[in-house]
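Supplementary material to the annual report.
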Amino acid sequence: QVHLVESGGGVLLSGTSLRLSCVASGFTFSNFGMHWVRQAPGRGLEWVAAISFDGSTNNHADSMKGRFTISRDNSKNTLSLQMNSLRPEDTAVYYCAKERAAFDAFEVWGRGTMVTVSS
Amino acid sequence: EIVLTQSPGTLSLSPGERATLSCRASQSVSSSYLTWYQQKPGQAPRLLIYGASSRATGIPDRFSGSGSGTDFTLIISRLEPEDFAVYYCQHYGDSMYTFGQGTKLEIK
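Predicted assembly:
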């Protein structure tokens, strides 16, 4: 069974850094592109970043470019999100998600990890 | 940047009724990259429809998607109690993924 488990969330101060992880199981991780999506409390979904199956290409939402970096380690079935210069508006549940195919729907989601940034 | 606008914001219906949810794009988009998700409180989103009209694995056939160009629709033919949730449309284009703001489907 396909599983994605995020970790690394917490409560931290504005301006600090945090690294989120997502461990995948139940499928060949190295064959699929992966994403981070976030959801602020009581708000809708916001795409954060994507990375190709082999890690050779990635892309980030404009509002997060230069502060957030997506990466992956296929030897460890792990997706990561390095978040720097955190702001209160980055407070959200962060989900990792597996693509169905390149540029396609997100067919499997983790349960998310909560990041709270206080000023 | 493409903006997806969902309507209505909230839809109040009773079990057994038909639900029609709309997703309108600010410019014409490829239906191949139009997706619908369902999200229940405290849960991660669940994939319902991809490619505008293809049901994901395990999704009941009371869910159907259609549309092209700028107008897309999700229809739930006969509402079951478990269908009351928030629904999001999503599009991929220009190396970006965009979500609509969501439609909350609530029990009347």
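Chain A touches chain B through 22 residues (CB under 8 Å).
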